Amino acid sequence: MITHPEKVLFPDEGITKGELASYYEALAPVMLPHICGRPITMERFPNGIGKKGFLQKDVTRGFPEWLERVEVPKKGGTVHHPIVLDTRALLWLANQNSVTPHVWTSRVPNLYHPDICVFDLDPSQDQPDILRAAALALRDLLDELGLPSWVKTSGSKGFHIVVPLDGRADFGQVAGFAHAVGTLLVKRHPANLTQEFSKADRGGRILVDTGRNGYSATFAAAYAVRAKPGAPVSAPCTWEELERGEVGPQTFTLRTMAGRVADVGDVWSDMRRRRRSLRRPMEQLRRSS
């Protein structure tokens, strides 16, 4: 049951809370396999995206008994994150005016062992050709290390590149691996890429952000709507689409995704069948550094 479905969340497009909920209900079959069991941080906009929203991790009071939660340690205490296992839970998030679910790279019950490694390419300025070249260069580097990768639009300014893992490495190992890959990529393309987090230090270059791989770090879930004008979606796409220049960071939207999925299905559907160990890639990186 969606309360106040008429509430406008995206004022420019007139997209309501009811339409957001309908989107997540329609996309649940392709979205659930990617977010199921991952601790979630909700990005909530009770007054629509035109007003300041907030991030909510903890769900300890005033939440339905049936909602799955996981208690995780934090500095000075614990946090009870919601867990999505089915469409009902996904709709519950939407009913909280949660436009974007942000998820961990690990799942219950193996919370300390990520099953994906995430790279976030974050441009300082709009340079689609350079951004595309950076994504393809990262794909090729991962390929050299024997790791298949998948790509999705961020729904914001860049792309997320994801490597499926066998779940044996812990957060520290995955974060260390990702940082080493980023370092090598920047070394190969210093004019266009950087690991400098501060925008003032980037000099207009694209940030190769590997910080999504630490304990409790999150990234926008696959198929998540972003709180930006046009309601862009963080949408899985193919490397071929990227090579041809057919997709940009905000190509797909809440109102176009259902048609896209009807046409192409879930282009990430085979990801979990191709999980890899980081043991050999880490050895290879050490030798090349």
Count of individual helical segments: 8
Largest sheet: 6 strands, mixed
Average the pLDDT over all residues and give the rounded result.
95
User: What separation lies between the terminal Cα atoms?
Assistant: 55 Å
Question: Structural class of the secondary structure composition?
Answer: alpha+beta
N-to-C order of helices and strands: EEHEEEEHEEHEEHEHEEEHHH
Helicity, as a percent range: 25-40%
Number of DSSP strands? Answer: 14
Largest sheet: spatial strand order: 11-12-8-10-9-14
Low-confidence segments, given as residue ranges, are: none
3D architecture notes:
By secondary structure, this protein is α+β, with helices and mostly antiparallel strands. The chain contains eight helices and 14 strands. It has helices at 17-35, 87-95, 128-144, 171-188, 199-202, 239-243, 257-264, 279-288; strands spanning 8-10, 15-16, 40-44, 54-56, 69-74, 77-82, 98-103, 116-122, 150-153, 159-164, 193-194, 206-209, 219-220, 236-237. The strands form four sheets. A six-stranded mixed sheet has the order 11-12-8-10-9-14. Strands 4-3-7-13 form a four-stranded antiparallel sheet. Strands 1-2 form a two-stranded antiparallel sheet. A hairpin with a 4-residue loop joins strand 1 and strand 2. Helix 1 crosses helix 2 (87-95). It is globular and about 55 Å long.
Q: What is the topology?
A:
Elements: E1 8-10, E2 15-16, H1 17-35, E3 40-44, E4 54-56, E5 69-74, E6 77-82, H2 87-95, E7 98-103, E8 116-122, H3 128-144, E9 150-153, E10 159-164, H4 171-188, E11 193-194, H5 199-202, E12 206-209, E13 219-220, E14 236-237, H6 239-243, H7 257-264, H8 279-288
Parallel strand pairs: 11-12
Antiparallel strand pairs: 1-2, 3-4, 3-7, 5-6, 7-13, 8-10, 8-12, 9-10, 9-14
Helix pairs in contact: 1-2
